[in-house]
Amino acid sequence: MGCSSDQSNSSPKLELDAQVVVTPLENGTYLLKDMSVNRNDLIPSENEMIIETNESFEHNEEDSIKYYLIETSSFVPMKITEKPEISANPNPKIEGDTIRLSQLMITLAPEYATLLKEFTTENVGKKIAIVIGGKAITKHKIREPITEGKIQISRCTDEACEVLLTEMENNILY
Description:
Elements: E1 3-4, H1 7-10, E2 14-15, E3 21-22, E4 28-36, E5 48-52, E6 67-77, E7 85-88, E8 102-107, H2 110-122, E9 127-132, E10 135-141, E11 150-156, H3 158-171
Antiparallel strand pairs: 1-6, 2-3, 4-6, 4-9, 5-6, 7-8, 8-11, 9-10
């Protein structure tokens, strides 16, 4: 399983008023339970949280999803060893494809590679959200276990990869 976290003890809490306590969300890969245009359409259980999507990563004008419901009890922290690399996608699915121009390669620190392998093995076929700076920056479906600690984000336009890289540089130390 991914990083099981008792966030009540491990993260600082922000008291907004006597009834609301907000725990900062750690950068990482989370199981995506549901999505919606309206926040009120999502009802989190005890181990779930509603987060906003980062507006810089809307895939097209018709993508109106603004909120994700993620599971917070099991996740993989985004702790990387080196600056992610952007490269050309060597295998576009369609010849002349202009949507998948680039891919971003992210290498997790070795101690988190094992967590990623366990997390992706248990969740093949499910959707995940990569969360940085408290917002979902991208979502993907786990097609097969990720065994080497290397995450490849491949449905990435050149501009989106650059924005994603900037978000990672601003929010994650390597």
